Protein: Arginine--tRNA ligase
Organism: uncultured spirochete
Amino acid sequence: MEHYIDQWKTIIAAHLRTIADKKGIVDFSLTLNDIIAEKPPKPELGDIGFPMFAFAKQFRLSPAQIASEVAQSEQLLKDENEKRDWPGNLKAVGPYLNVYLERTRAVTFLLSNAANPDWGSSAVFSGRKVMIEFSCPNTNKPLHLGHLRNNVLGESLSRIMKAAGAEVKKVNLINDRGVHICKSMLAYLAYGEGRTPEDEGLKSDHFVGKYYVLFNKLKEEDPQAEQKAQELLQKWEAGDPEVIALWKKMNDWAVDGIMETYRRQQVSFDEYHFEHETYKLGKKEVLEGLERGVFYRGEDGAIWIDLEDLGLGKKVLLRKDGTSIYITQDIGTAIMRHESWPFDQLIYVVASEQQYHFKVLFEVLKRLGYDWASSLYHLSYGLVNLPTGRMKTREGTVVDADDLIDELARLAAVEIAEKGRADAVGDIQSVAGQIALGALHYYLLQISPAKDMLYNPEQSLSFTGDTGPYIQYMGARASSILRKHDQGEGNAAQGIPKANLLSSDADWPLVRTLMELPSIIEESAKGKDPSILAGYAHAVASEFSAWYRDNPVLINEDPNLSASRLALVRAVKSVLMRASELLCVPFLEAM
RNA sequence: GCGUUCGUAGCUCAGCUGGAUAGAGCGACGGACUUCGAAUCCGUAGGCCGCAGGUUCGAGUCCUGCCGGACGCACCA
């Protein structure tokens, strides 16, 4: 079914064309995009508002005149309403044309569709293959708060794109080689004495991270440490069996631990790429580009690209000794990915500090002649800071991902106990864990990706306001009402839902908000911005909360009223479940 | 210095391609539990939208300059 806003845009457009004809304007062209639809500031003003300013000049009429003329001719076509999916009345209010939707039709539509668990999905991206790269951890230390933002952004965006019809492939490039991991190895050789994570009772990635930190100590004791790390890297690249064995052991520890964190965070990947397998890719491409004159060899022997014309300066693509650097690898990886799975779009979820890198990368691929280079997209997100300042490894102000989730879960468990909900929720540990994830994920997604954000531990732990737990709570309340009905409470079972019983001014704001789910999902997908959906989820929860306070659901004099309201609660639950799922906020039947 | 980006209520943030009286949440203050779970709800206070120009019928939104913050400007990743 056509979206209600689009349908009314079409109607308005037809009327505007009629006016243009009457005025004898020959070169009048109009697309639906030229018509702006907005939500009137007050509900009394209608459900959709169309400002007419834009057409005033061409028609040589005041916006108000245009509005009233359209409204009048719409009156003459009243019988058309019967044929429309979204009937309604058009009214001129000053320079605005406002639509009042026929409420019973809208309610009927909502009730018959919202129960479908797939409702809200759209087809805007259907048939499109979208690859999304995110997380991409280093294997020398555990994940921290910044990774959590990256992970949840990538996971949520993947789910949203899928809901918008795309075929999605989630990929993760594990940075498992390089001098950083050699430092952990070196420190382990110096202080590890062959111990294992089990010996020290540490999660395996934390164990590796501990030695990475210990490298700082090693540097103080051994001024040659940095150089030794480089030597170790060279041995690794030469395939020294002992070095490889150690690398593999430590790498497995790190990766195993990181995977464990993914499971806890409930994010997953369809494909893993490992840097030790990909780091040599791209060299051939760069050399071919050199032959074709896309790149040039500098006096220093390295291969360069000149991007001065774009204001991006000059950039090395391959070292003079022929070895790859970061960007060489990314060139090769992108090509390899497109060959194995010809995507229509590849989205890199990577922090904003790498904007320059991706500009260069995309330009290089374009100049190499890959037409799909224009479909590469860097979803740049801002850094996560703390109220106390920036996270710094050296200052020990990094918030560890596992520790944070533990702490949130612990506090949620305390809260459950204090509220006396222990018996009602059953498995406290499990529910507390879900609340922790809801709190964390919602907090991270609520803010537009591009912005740097402040992670306020105190506020993220707050269970009131614009938070994940609030949304979970409203979902649990809706579930609770439905559960009570299933257990035989109330008289809804004796009635049948009637759309006209849900069309009052008290119901309408909630109904209208619920109807917006499909367009919100579409908007989030197009903008690659889960925060739009997060704001919507909060609006639904908040409107539901106000509505059920004033409107008893289970028992009413008229059983039909109970049945109708119960159906609306079902729609609320369905919409909250869908939004929660897309936001990686676990839905809870009880909390 | 150059580039990118941000600057909206005490705090954290919304405000879509310019459009109707700039909105939430937190915090503050005042109310609401014999009634589907008060982790809730209702109300009040709080803003020269960084500053100054410009474009427009109309600017928080676009352009220019300035001020302030963040990030980048490696043969690191």
About this structure: The longest helix of chain A spans residues 241-265. Residues 236 and 242 of chain A are 9 Å apart (CA to CA).
